Amino acid sequence: PWDPTRSPGGRSGGSAAAVSGGLAPISLGSDTGGSIRQPAALCGLVGFKPTYGRVSRFGLVAFGSSLDQIGPFGQTVADVAALSQVICQTDGLDNTSLPDAPLGAMDLANASVKGKRFALPRELMSDAVEANVRASIEQAIRTLEAAGATVDHVDLPSLSLGVSTYYVIAPAEASSNLGRFDGVRYGAREEAPGHVESLMATRGKKFGHEVKLRIMVGTYALSAGYYDAYYLRAQQIRGLMVAEIDALWGEYDAILSPTSPCVAFPLGGFSHDPMALKLMDFCTIPANMGGYPALSLPCGLADGLPVGLHLMGPVRGDERLLELAAGVERALGGAPLRPPRA
Fold this sequence. Notes:
Strand content: 5-15%
Order of helices and strands: HEHEEHEHEHHHHEHHEEH
Oligomer: single chain
Shape: globular
Structural class: alpha+beta
Number of domains: 2
């Protein structure tokens, strides 16, 4: 909506564009490695990924079962908090649903950043963050500090391996989850002379290129000769990442970073460099790895396009994170960002 020649992000870019463009006041998306928060950042919205298990995934097409979560988009923190109170419920049809899923009371109206402490990992403010985005984030940090917050730079070395780890674990889980779409019980069916031929035609024609690529990568990572070298090693790094992050919660209220290393990019801008597109999620992936609640909210414009500020809190700390985000939103100006109208 800010520039029709640019991408709203993915995977839930349509949901984000609908809210940003004024077609809906709120919407839902799904987030496996940043697919709510990334579009929220590019479209100038608030996007919230609750703690893993707080929103039922029953009915969602599973991609990465240990990573997937449903969450809301809105113009303000109050919008996403209101929708979160509706959708965060225990559901017996989802065996990952938390027994204490419903959110407790929140006081967004009186939220403040005064006295709050934020950790800013150096690994998430690396040279991969474009200069215009970095400038917006640094200005937001100065504003928060002026409002009474403390922002400390910290080292979390495992975060530098987040993207590599994600692109082993997520495709491995996807290769299992998407295996059911064979045209027998799930998915459309492509007819061919024999059963095996029909199955091959269905799998070959009904999945897109990127889906087939991830299924093949995941199957490879889980194969007998490579399981220990790739999948098991990735899970070990995931555990290390969670341990490093958890060690911060006793001292800090939230972990702060950019949401995306760049503003909305031209449509097809990464068609010749798909690896660069995958690297865009390096700030958002850690929240999925540990099941943490995380949120992106607007913190200004760079070259006329929105920049997102990312906040991540401890598991089951959704209410406190939303209150903190409301305080950040107020400190940064409060009014939602709205795209220019033609």
